[in-house]
Amino acid sequence: MSHLYRMSVRRAAALAGAVAITASLTAAAGGTSSAEAATFPSITAGGAHTCAIKTNDTATCWGYNGLGQASVPTDLGTVKQITAGGSHTCAIKTNDTVACWGYNGDGRASVPTDLGTVKQITAGGSHTCAIKTNDTVACWGYNGDGQASVPTDLGTVKQITGGDAHTCAIKTNDTVACWGYNYYGQASVPTDLGTVKQITAGGYHTCAIKTNDTVVCWGWNDYGQATVPTDLGTVKQITAGYVHTCAIKTNDTATCWGYNYNGQASVPTDLGTVKQITGGGYHTCATKTNDTVVCWGDNTLGATSVPAELTVAPDLTKPSTPGPFTGVPSSSTTSTTATIGFTLGESGGAVECRLDSGSWGPCTNVVGTSGSHTVSGLSLGSHKVSVRQTDTANNTSDTGTSSSWTITAPVAPTVLTPAAGVKTLLRNAATNTWTIKVSLLFSTGGDTRPGAQFLTLQVAVDSNGKPVTTKPADGAPFPTAPAITQGVVNWSGTGDAKLTWASTPVWVRIQNKFGKWSNWARLTA
222: phi > 0 → left, psi -120 to 50 → alpha, else beta; which? Predict the structure, then answer.
């Protein structure tokens, strides 16, 4: 114990009044190994505080907070990874930028302004390191032992871990590099280590999982923290605390060894199987397979007092897929409006609908477990409506999709009779331009879609009894009178068109807004 006391005193200057214990946190032990948000509470144990990413991707911390290390910033937002150091905490936000809080001695919580976006972060005893999106490493904070001096020949890396005063990384070729304080050999990588899958830096020892899933540890071993149990077998994850080590075996059970004065290496007998484990100063925490968090070891400052919300298994059951669907039009229709009904598996939460592959948005009507969505102004072709539901626990259902239906083009409009023919209103002799007024009777071809009756007039001159050289009527719609009642099959209307031809007769035809042209009608003055 006296040796531990001397070690703590040695670091006291760097901690500047923080708790005289420090932590070793790896990304795998203190967050998620790839800096992606976990679907279960992702935990990280610091010197005397603990933090977690909840299932809604927000962060929470508890334990010692004398330096603000457990006070999550109110504007932090959602995060992908979190790491707790000796007396500070850092997180990767969902936009891949870094935020740090807590004790800022030597700048350990001051994120470099030129850091940019990152993939992984680790908080050591009094320094911080991150893997940038280009796979290079940046470190900052206390550097009295070189722990923040990234080797110039390091190259690109896959994982990084910060110990009390040393740092280790797995390079992209799966070999290990370490730097920083090396009095106990914790930064001296064994020459026969070979390639590894994961690495974790403790107070003054280091452990790694080799590619054959076995564990190797090196460095300070006065309390057996670097002595791998002979019956350990293969493991899935490892974490090094200050003076103890824990691992998740391939059968998902946890085992710990090393210094155990505070019970940090005594795995609870009723722990069961776990998904993640993290070792702190003198405490250990794990996420069980039912997604609850359990901590053990020193609780003098509340590091193992897990918030109640993390001790209850979260609701991870997503709502059932919406359906069946009702009101789906027959396989072929000319109607451009449809109201599709659907049934939900449960009431409440947010229900969203979308047409085809468009954007999601609120459904038109939802009451209890019944809903409907109205779509209008549909284009020709195939359509379908999709529905999804997100419950109050933020679980989203699989997407339910209606059967498809097809909107076909209606028959073309028809010029039935010239009602009044062509009347010359004005002739400009200089330009040889006629202004004509046309009054015709049309049929929309039985198309009752909104706007089907609003047509475009086209005029042509006569050549041997046939229309030639068509010319749009200055782009003006026909009829110009707005008082046409939609939904009427047959109607008459008038419109003006300017012609650059002086001859008569002329031909006219109409086009509905869906692109269908009528037959030509021959008009004479």
Answer: alpha
The larger pLDDT score, comparing residue 356 to residue 465, is at 356
For residue 117, the tally of other CB atoms under 10 A from its CB is 14
* Predicted pLDDT at 9: 27
Four-residue CA torsion sign, 356, 360, 365, 366: positive
Q: How many of the other CB atoms lie within 10 Å of CB of 427?
A: 12
Q: Does residue 247 have a pLDDT over 50?
A: yes
What is the pLDDT at residue 363?
96
Buried b (16+ CB within 10 A) or exposed e, 187-204: bebeeeeeebbbbbbbbb
Give CA angle at 437 (470, 452), nearest 5°. 70
Q: DSSP class of residue 517? A: B
Best CA proximity match to 322, nearest among 382, 369, 392, 384: 369
Lookup: tokens for 230:
């002979």
| pLDDT tens digits, one per residue of 384-426 | 999 999 998 889 999 999 999 998 866 555 554 444 444 443 4
Domains of the chain: 2-311 (2.130.10.30), 325-407 (2.60.40), 414-523 (2.60.40)
- Burial (CB < 10 A; 0-12, 13-18, 19+), residue 446, is exposed
